[in-house]
Structure formats: structure tokens, C-alpha cells
Fold this sequence. Notes:
This protein has helices at residues 11-24, 29-38, 43-55, 61-76, 80-89, 94-102, 106-123, 130-143, 148-162. The protein is mainly alpha-helical.
Amino acid sequence: MSLPFRQSLSREQALQKIKHYCAYQERCHQEVKEKLYELGLYKKDVEEVTAQLIDENYLNEERFAIQYAGGKFRIKHWGRIKIKYSLKQKQVSEYNIKKAMTQIEGESYMQTLEKLCQAKWEIFKNEKNRYVKKRKTQDYLLQKGYESDLVREVINSMQDDEK
Length: 163
């Protein structure tokens, strides 16, 4: 089975398309390079276009990491672990990941964790077995990417309030 023929764009056409792609939403270097390869550019052109985008400030990995981390936290309520892992998947540098993590305020982070815990705890209010209720709530929060020590702390305070 052969791949469908795709038309490759000239370097200038690809540059205009990728500028629009970057202007629409913050992108990481990996996403941009993948898109340029999809547009039919070769490695040398991809590297040159990427460098030009960085020079013209269309592409800024630090800005991307901060926006991405903030958005995933505010909108999807992801924890730091899941955000870090996702940024690593996108091949963002460790420096930029750390910079993005500093943008998530501790107080806001704990409030979100407590709110998620409270909501999940309420869902299991009819659960007779307290251990099962605690375990399901804990698994949910860990899956969202919150640190296990914080999850334990919040769940324990939730149990104390219930007594």
C-alpha cells in the first residue's frame, strides 16, 4: 500500500503557512518541525525556517511552556506532574519546564486540588466502604497529575471534616 502523493510547498509558501500556524496559537519547536515536514520541506529548509521563526519571535519555547502549563492547569485542572510529563513529551527543555511550573501559584494549586477532591468525594458519598471511597478519590487525583503527598493530605483533611 503506497502513501498518497502529497504536494510539497516551496520554502516561501511553507514559511507563510507556518507563520499563520504559529500566530494562531503558541507552538513548541517539535510541533512546528512536524508541520514543516508535513508541508514537504526537507531537513535543511526545516532548520532554516525554524531559525527564522525564532528570530521573528513567532516561535518561543519559553512562552509556549508558560501558556501551555497555565492553560492545562486553569482549564483542565491538571496537576504539576501531568503538565511536566506532557511538556517533556513535546520535547520542551527542562529549563522552560521549570520556568512554566513557577507560574502556577501554590495557593491556587491547592484550592483547585481541594475543589477537585471535594467534588469527587461528593460523587462517592453513598459508598459504604470508606476505604473504597478514599481509594477512588485518590486514584482520580493522581491520574490528574497531583503529587501523592498533597493528595494524601487533602483526602485526610476531607475525612477529618466528615467525622
